[in-house]
Amino acid sequence: MDWGTELWDQFEVIERHTQWGLDLLDRYVKFVKERTEVEQAYAKQLRSLVKKYLPKRPSKDDPEFKFSQQQSFVQILQEVNDFAGQRELVAENLSIRVCLELAKYSQEMKQERKMHFQEGRRAQQQLESGFKQLENSKRKFERDCREAEKAAQTAERLDQDINATKADVEKAKQQAHIRSHMAEESKNEYAAQLQRFNRDQAHFYFSQMPQIFDKLQDMDERRATHLGAGYGLLSEAELQVVPIIAKCLEGMKVAAAAVDSKNDSQVLIELHKSGFARPGDVEFEDFSQPMNRAPSDSSLGTPSDGRPELRGPARSGRAKRWPFGKKNKPRPPPLSRLGGPLPSPLPNGPPSPRSGLDPLAILSEISKSVKPRLASFRSLRGSRGTVVTEDFSHLPPEQQRKRLQQQLEDRNRELQKEVDQREALKKMKDVYEKTPQMGDPASLEPRITETLNNIERLKLEVQKYEAWLAEAESRVLSNRGDSLSRHARPPDPPASAPPDSSSSSNSGSQDNKESSEEPPSEESQDAPIYTEFDEDFEEEPVSPIGHCVAIYHFEGSSEGTISMAEGEDLSLMEEDKGDGWTRVRRKQGGEGYVPTSYLRVTLN
């Protein structure tokens, strides 16, 4: 079925339908264009959002980038940025493949439609013109017939009139004959015109207009097919970016799974661990009046060395245990303001406890001679106006060591690069000397000299940073040893070398300075008096509960600890109770506590 056969008389309907189809095509093009603008605006807003939340500093200079949370967030922002790029690609494909092509095709369709309808209107005008000619010839024939009939009636009336002259009769007959001849010619002309019009009309309705309608039908079908393809391009543009968008979403999922809270906690420690020793306890100041009490068998007394003792049964020669604590655990020594050990007591300190004073009176006298010292967090933090030095001495010890280690690694890399470059230049010089046509060996001398100068400079810098690093490590290990002895906290496993608890602390000079200003008594600086009493306990033979191997070397310099060498087999006597220390026994004899992190433990 086609329009030429079925819609031969619906010229205006076909005209309206084809115009509606082109308008629909234009509406779709406009829709896709606005959709493209929406996609571009969406992508632009996404990129602006990503730019707003991306870190301003480079990742290598941003300490926050070391946290997995920040890395995952940056990765999500990058995936969103890639997602925005895919939206821009969708907008670009829609703009080129849909908007431009369909707009161009719409113009072509409009021109073709205009041509077909111009042809149809021209054929219609020709048919109308032939019909008008037919009507004119028909009216002329009708008029000539009436005049011929009228002339014939006039001639017949004059012929019967006896008063009419012969000349009048002849003239009337001659006029009737002329009119009759003219009517005959009009009849022939009308017949010919009618025949011609019928032929033109048949050609118009059966050939010419059906062909035009068929062309319009073909044009409209091609337009609809092209429009359907344009509909498909809308989804095809989306499907093309679906794999990339899926990768973006998968990347976001991976970034979310990459958040490691434990590692972030460790990173925070690495970034901000100062290496300072913890501040000491604040001493108790007793402002009550000293009271003299007569010593009795039930009261507390003190031995001659100034340490209070618990009166009771005779002491045995066995090892002692601290009350409410583990056997021979490292005892926290007194702390100074900066974390170092307190100086020795003055010779003219408090009176001997043998003088008959009660221990509370002794404590009161001691507290009066000691000023309270509290290490605040403010003293451990650098001020805002700190001057940055080349050896990073303005930083806390641990951070100074890390920065120096980083600088040393950078210098070593640069040194190795310069050494490799020097070797390459030497080889190139040898090649030039063997084959002069490849180049002049003398042209490499300036570069070789420059490389040698760089090597010497970097070696000096390496030596300088190594010296600074050794000094910083000694400070860190010293502070770590002090903290271990005071707070019974095990040291962290060493990164490359084991800790040397015998290294000197850089804060010793400041502690000595404080000792000259604040002369405390060493006995009064230990622990509170009620935890300083020693008790005798009956020891029972204990069998090992497992064995362990020392991963690192440990120098047990604090009270209650024991030394061990790397790789040494030890017997496990007591598990870690949560304080980071494990009691072990050496095969050569000796028993004490070592850091749990320094051991590889196997239980029986």
Topology, element by element:
Layout: H1 3-6, H2 11-53, H3 68-160, H4 166-257, H5 261-272, E1 320-321, H6 359-368, H7 377-380, H8 397-434, H9 445-487, H10 508-517, E2 535-536, E3 546-550, E4 569-574, E5 581-586, E6 591-595, E7 599-603
Question: Any overview of this molecule?
Answer:
There is one protein chain. By secondary structure, the protein is mainly alpha-helical. Among the domains are: 3-263, Substrate Binding Domain Of Dnak, Chain:A, Domain 2 (Up-down Bundle), CATH 1.20.1270.60; 397-478; 546-603, Roll (SH3 type barrels), CATH 2.30.30. 58% of the residues lie in helices and 5% in strands. The chain has a 5-stranded antiparallel beta sheet with strand order 6-5-4-3-7, with no helix packed on it. It has a two-stranded antiparallel sheet with strand order 1-2. Strand 4 (569-574) and strand 5 form a beta hairpin. Mean pLDDT is 76; it is low at 292-364, 366-384 and 495-539.
| Major sheet details | 5 strands, antiparallel
Q: Give me the CATH superfamily of one domain.
A: Arfaptin homology (AH) domain/BAR domain
Q: Helix proportion of residues, in percent?
A: 55-70%
CATH class of one domain: Mainly Alpha
Structural class: mainly alpha
Mean pLDDT value: 76
Low-confidence stretches: 292-364, 366-384, 495-539
Helix count equals 10
Strand order of the largest sheet: 6-5-4-3-7
Radius of gyration: 56 Å
Per CATH, the architecture of one domain is Up-down Bundle
**In one word, what is the shape?**
rod-shaped
User: How many DSSP E strands?
Assistant: 7
Q: Spell the H/E element sequence.
A: HHHHHEHHHHHEEEEEE
Query: What percent of residues are in strands?
Result: 5-15%
> How far apart, in Å, are the first and last alpha carbons?
96 Å
In the CATH scheme, what's the topology name of one domain? Substrate Binding Domain Of Dnak, Chain:A, Domain 2
